[in-house]
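Quick start: what a row looks like.
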Amino acid sequence: MTTSRRSSSSRGRQSALKTVAASVFGVAVYSLFSEESFLSTSGRRSLTTQLEHEMEMEMNSLSNKPAQIAVTADAKPGDNNNAYDVSYLSHHSTLLPWAENNLVDIQDPAQSGDATPIFWHIPKAGGTTAKQLYQCMGKTLTIRVGIDPRHGHDKTDELVVFPPVNGKDWNTVNVDTTIRPGILRARKMGLVQSHLADLIFTMEPSFAGEQLFDPQNKGLVMALFRNPVERLVSKFYYLQTATWERTYRPEWKDMSIVQWAEQPSEDENFMVRKLSNKKFSEEVTEIDLILAKEFLRQRVIVGLMGEMEESFRRFNIAMGVDTNEERNRKCVNEFFGERGDDAGVKNSNKHAKIVEGSPEWRALAQKNRLDMILYAYAEKLFEEQKAIINSYVSPASSEAGDSSV
């Protein structure tokens, strides 16, 4: 069973790569190089060579397909003299099969109605705020506390919905969808099919998307993104003092950020790694970056930590949360009524800031260059998605004064 599943996953990845090699190659190379992507000239030459080689290998296996691409050094999107012939792609997806079939296409509002929302919690990027906001609204969430042995539901084979905190009316389910073993347990117990959870939290977006959902029970993916350098600096200082965390690292107090950046770390290109479903021991590449970009563009409602209020406005629309309802309105006001740099951030830790362009910034940015590129792309998607998310609300709802718009 395991071998078959891995083989299927591998075939799906190869299929997506074939399509990506054809459809995204020219535009991706252009977009990577036209923005500030933290790549040196030699690095750009290496990336171009690698992508060209990858595309040639993939396209050789498509000899019966009439796909041809011409890319010149000065090719630009919209330039008819340097157009890309990608007619072959009209019936192929740049997504892996599980993402294509199991998750909602964010540009199709009709798909979101019966989908189960899933929130990708990127550490130190506002995930705690998301949990606390929807707890305030009385939602049922799947988070780590659901399998706390003190509640007595961690060993049962049946799903149990219960309030984990006395005196609070928000609920959890007895599964932990933040980690892989918990995701597999939740799948076995039929979590998504039960429709018991209002919002699933995970730190494994690809694994959860593939394992928990199916074409009849789709997931709606949301995530908050933060500049990778700022996120890592926050984590560096936070885990020096967070004695309550399992990943508490007091030894980091004796390191500089530059020294810390030189250490092997699972945080290296964390976002691209998670979206490519690769382990720490596996290298993430520019091809993984291209696939990650496509995943964000087609399957993720993008929020930004620097735009918390607007981000959650969009999440609420997608989830069908009525912010005209008194309780929900009070929660929104509690979290976003204040103003300032930390408005809406409920787990912020005060620490020294580093200056963009400083040795510390450059060390972290270079080590996480794929994540830096992906974050810049997420910022662009955030601007582009506003009209898409607003289209989720019917004109009738807007005229009735739906304040989630």
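That is the whole record. The two ends are 46 Å apart (CA to CA). The longest strand covers residues 219-225.
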